[in-house]
Specification:
Blueprint (H helix, E strand, L loop, with lengths): L1 E3 L10 H4 L35 E7 L6 H9 L6 E8 L5 H11 L3 E6 L4 H9 L6 E4 L5 E2 L3 H11 L6 E9 L5 E5 L10 H7 L8 E4 H6 L6 H4 L6 H10 L4 E12 L5 H22 L5 H10 L3 H7 L3 H12 L3 H17 L30 H23 L1
Parallel strand pairs: 1-4, 2-3, 2-5, 3-4, 7-10
Antiparallel strand pairs: 5-9, 6-10, 7-8, 7-9
Helix pairs in contact: 6-11, 6-15, 9-10, 10-11, 10-12, 11-14, 12-13
Length: 401
């Protein structure tokens, strides 16, 4: 099935579209300055036999080389009760035709077509149409393990206080879908984690997260303002920080996502993403007035890690430019973070992943092993956890006052 998106901006409901709709209720009694609640569309009750309906959102722009493999990994999920929404964001290649062919074989799949408006606009176009109780995003070149959705739903079910987000680990894959590196999350990074997320970006991959649909709408989905400012690249981080500001997150500690790395135009992509990360942190710091100033400074300094991506690719001049752009604003934190990263790369002991070189589909998701993903010692990690708890308590006190 194919739908042409309407002309109005689907990233923000119009005044006319809001009439007659029920208002969104607060989530766990929490509200955050600057975050607007969004209307909740009718969500059908879960089928006890099939489990809850999960909407999978796939933004696609000129993705003809990878979209079929991505959709195959979605259709192969052991949790079968899915709604798959592919948003063709003005592609000029065969993306739409390939998706139509896949939709003929699977009635769960629906194609939405719209003029090119950027990844945030594309994701939100599907979010406002989603019928599932949960929503999960995947980029048009990434892959999922068949149990990805099922395992995340199990985490939502077993937690006494339902988290607002469940994330998984991921493996980096190349153009041939072979594993080149793994990124397994730390199992103790759960609960209220806003400060820790700002400082470390520990669940950085949008293809790894699942969120209740009404929660995703309550924070406005993916914010398109970064693209309008020429800083597209951290829409995922901005939404994830806004979710972390509203409540607890939880972890599914297996490598259930294949996150594809591209070599083409890497210097431009990394520099833009670094600037976008800083802008996202600044926006959330303004929206959460109780956020400690040192946390946001630490988060901005963390972005210096992108310098190493550029150096690894041989982009020395771009790496130096990016370093000075970050360092002039907060030189002390940036230099300290540089030394931490160098020490981590030089001295941390990492156990080889047995899946390296394997195709992602054949890799055991539970064999992914990584050392300490955090660049900080126990003292700083404890300080971040204390800051997380303090921000959560102060937010609740303000709401209940």
């Amino acid at each position: 099935m194919t739908i042409d998106a309407d002309k109005p901006d689907l990233t923000r409901p119009t005044a006319e579209g809001l009439r007659g709709r029920t208002r969104t209720r607060p989530l766990d009694g929490l509200t955050v300055k600057g975050l607007r609640g969004q209307p909740v569309r009718d969500i059908p009750p879960a089928d006890p036999a099939a489990g809850p309906l999960v909407t999978v959102i796939v933004p696609a722009y000129n993705a003809s080389r990878t979209i079929v493999e991505t959709l195959s990994s979605i259709r192969a999920q052991t949790h079968r009760h899915l709604e798959i929404l592919v948003v063709d964001d003005g592609s000029v290649d065969r993306t739409a035709a390939l998706v139509k062919a896949e939709a003929q074989a699977d009635p769960r799949l629906r194609l939405i077509r719209q003029p090119n408006g950027g990844v945030a606009h594309a994701r939100n176009a599907a979010l406002w149409q989603a019928k599932g109780a949960f929503v999960a995003w995947i980029d048009a070149d990434d892959l999922w393990h068949p149990e990805k959705i099922a395992r995340q739903l199990a985490v939502f079910e077993r937690e006494e206080q339902r988290p607002l987000l469940v994330y998984t680990g991921y493996r980096l894959i190349d153009a041939s879908s072979r594993v080149v590196e793994n990124h397994r999350p730390l199992t103790d990074v759960s609960g209220h984690t806003l400060c820790t997320q700002i400082a470390t970006n520990f669940f950085s991959n949008v293809s790894s997260i699942m969120v209740p649909t009404e929660v995703a709408r309550a924070v406005g989905g993916h914010d398109p303002q970064l693209r309008r400012a020429g800083l597209e690249g951290a829409e995922d981080l901005l939404m994830q920080l806004r979710l972390a500001a509203r409540g607890a997150v939880s972890c599914c500690p297996s490598a259930l996502v294949g996150y594809r790395m591209h070599d083409g135009n890497m210097s431009l992509q990394v520099a833009r993403t670094a600037g976008s990360n800083i802008r996202a942190i600044d926006l959330v710091a303004a929206e959460v007035p109780d956020l400690p100033h040192w946390v946001s400074r630490l988060g901005r300094a963390r972005v210096v890690g992108y310098v190493f991506f550029l150096l690894r690719g041989g982009h020395v001049r771009q790496a130096l430019t990016l370093f000075w752009q970050i360092a002039w604003r907060q030189p002390v934190e940036t230099l300290v973070m540089m030394f931490r990263i160098i020490a981590h790369l030089a001295f941390s002991r990492q156990v080889g992943d047995p899946a390296l070189g394997q195709r992602f589909a054949q890799a055991n998701p539970d064999s992914a092993i990584w050392g300490d993903l955090m660049l900080f010692g126990k003292r700083m990690r404890r300080r971040l956890r204390q800051a997380d708890a303090a921000v959560a308590v102060r937010t609740k006190v303000k709401v209940n006052a």
